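task queued by scheduler; priority normal; single chain, no ligands, no partner chains; default sampling; output format set to structure tokens
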Amino acid sequence: MPYIVADDLPDAPAGIRFRKLLERPGILRLPGAHTGIAALMAKNAGFEAVYVSGAAMSATMGLPDLGMITLDEVAFYIRQVSRAAGLPMLVDGDTGFGEALNVMHMVRTYEDNGAAAVHIEDQLLPKKCGHLNDKKLASADDMAAKVAAARKARRHLYIIARTDAVASEGMDAAVDRAKRYLAAGADAIFPEALSSEEMFREFARRLPGVPLLANMTEFGRTPFFTADEFEAMGYRMVIWPVSHMRVANKAMEELYATLAREGSAKSMLPRMQTRAELYRHIDYHAYEALDATLVKTVVPVATPER
């Protein structure tokens, strides 16, 4: 049913539902889905939670992932995903939009708009994608203060502390930072940009019993692993942050090239989601049924030929 029907809305806060998913056996799979339609398609494919990436939101706005987008802009994406699909979502919190008070404001804003979990990273602005070079890190003390502020402000939000320290400071420093962040109140740890199975296994071995998040992004430092392989290495969550956007952007790029070359999109029809398929995902007819003044739409069978 469409999200505007109150009886169809979840009763428990998103953060509680996220925790319950983590309590079950197996790794929690979080595909990137930063728009309402993406979240609906992920839900219809059987996923029970999604990830909202800062890189995806930034790129959708035509901006690089350098911590440039605002809290209000992120809230718009959180709100549309929550309303469209109702799934618990982990949302990228970048560096927390400032220092401790800003982090507290971010936590309340995320919760109020429907987020279930957030990860905050220990970089300094301007931040970079975790798989790029020359990342500048905040001190462990400053990051721990942000984690403590997030913990103090949250009602139910699940807090994941991300450390980018492995690339620049080494494994020992990254593990030490993770322990500091856990002591400050983090629920889980996200070690970013690990570059081998051995590194993933070592990080998990040195933090026994701690829920860990793995990032399976393409074109980065991490080799391709499956969700089951990450689980075997000791990880409880895995994200595919921008895979959906990469596929969609490549398809749009090909469409525009085809339009420029051929003056028509006809040759792209086999690559397109049909009107009927789109309407099924957005539950078009269920919305019509809510308003007796609307006559049920009849979907055209095919694009008419000349």
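post-processing summary
- Residues 6-241 form a domain with the TIM Barrel fold (CATH 3.20.20.60).
- The two ends are 38 Å apart (CA to CA).
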